[in-house]
Structure formats: C-alpha cells, structure tokens
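Supplementary Methods. Inverse-folding protocol.

Structures were first reduced to a discrete structure-token string of length 206. This string, shown here, constituted the complete conditioning input.
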C-alpha cells in the first residue's frame, strides 16, 4: 500500500447520495470494462472475476486466504507501484463506492491513521496514511491510495501502494492499468458486496 500530490480537494457540498453510482463518464469506452464491453480479440489473462491485459513490466500475483485457500485479490506490480484489485457484486441501479469510502475512512481512523478525500481519475478517491505496526516506540506509516468504480452489477476496488500512491506520473500509469481491467460479473445471483470469485489463470482468453 502506500500520497497523491497536487490533486484538487473535493467539493464536499456536492456529495452524492451514498447509493449513487460513482464512475468516470467514459467508463464504458475507456474502462474499467464490463465483460460485454471488452475487446473480444485482446489476449486477456482470465482470473475469473477479473481479466488482465498483459503489458511489458507487469507482474501478477494472486492473494490467497490461508484458511480457505480461496483467491481473494489480484496483485499487480507495475511501474514501481502495487495495485491490489477486488471485484464485488453490486445492485443493478445503485453503487457501492460512496458507502465503501466512508467505511474505509472510518476503519483507518480507528487504526490511528489519517485519510484525505480527493478527486482523481475515477472520481472521489482516498489517500490514507496507514500505521504499519512498526517496532515499539516507532510511528511507522505507509501511504495508500484507494480507488473505486461502480459498473453494471459490479464494483471494482483498487488499493495503490508504492510510487503510484505519491507521484503523479506513476499514479497516471497505475490508473491506466486499472482502466484496462475487465470485470466478469457472470449471471449467477449474488448478494451485493460479495466478492466475485477469482481463480488461478489457466490460459489467455478473449
């Protein structure tokens, strides 16, 4: 995880309702994409709920819950940054990001961290200084940037660490990577906020 500099403050008087969708106006054409919007001939790496487009310098990791051996997140190391992504089921007509941001800010505050809400590439995002639990007598922290996009029946959350959390040029590269992701919601009924199943890659697919 990980400071995003030179971003304008949000107009807090113009906040949307908690259940309003939050996404870039050009999401359908510029991403993150729904499976129905993705280019069918591109060689995506299929991870179940997320598809990743290979690019030079990109390393992919899957984060596995030890007790259940379930894949719970996708880690992408790129351009001096780490981007952790998770896709969640969401209602068709309402979003999760506005509510989720408030929950993240509250949790980090309870841990003794600080959170700033800014306007970023995807709309509102959080820049958090998170305690790391360093050695006794130290106040070690790291900076993390939380981004999110509400799509059709899904919500994609990203956590940026490393240079992409503090340096604008690196942040732009990570944002472009986040834009290129494809969410595969599927047709199975799922309660909102449930993690869309992720899996080990078997092969590249369209």
């Amino acid at each position: 995880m990980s400071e995003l500099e030179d971003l304008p403050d949000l107009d807090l008087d113009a906040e949307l309702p908690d259940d309003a969708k939050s996404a870039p106006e050009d999401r359908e054409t510029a991403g993150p994409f729904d499976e129905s919007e993705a280019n069918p001939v591109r060689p995506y790496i299929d991870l179940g709920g997320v598809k990743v487009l290979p690019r030079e310098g990109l390393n992919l990791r899957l984060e596995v819950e030890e007790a259940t051996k379930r894949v719970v997140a996708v880690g992408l190391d790129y351009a001096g940054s780490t981007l952790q992504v998770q896709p969640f089921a969401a209602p068709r007509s309402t979003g999760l990001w506005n509510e989720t941001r408030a929950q993240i800010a509250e949790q980090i505050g309870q841990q003794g961290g600080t959170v700033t809400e800014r306007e970023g590439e995807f709309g509102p995002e959080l820049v958090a200084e998170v305690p790391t639990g360093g050695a006794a007598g130290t106040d070690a922290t790291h900076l993390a940037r939380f981004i999110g996009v509400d799509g059709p029946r899904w919500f994609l959350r990203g956590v940026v660490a490393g240079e992409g959390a503090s340096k604008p040029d690196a942040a732009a590269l990570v944002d472009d990577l986040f834009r290129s992701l494809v969410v595969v919601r599927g047709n199975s009924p799922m309660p909102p906020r449930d993690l869309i199943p992720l899996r080990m890659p078997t092969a590249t697919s369209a």
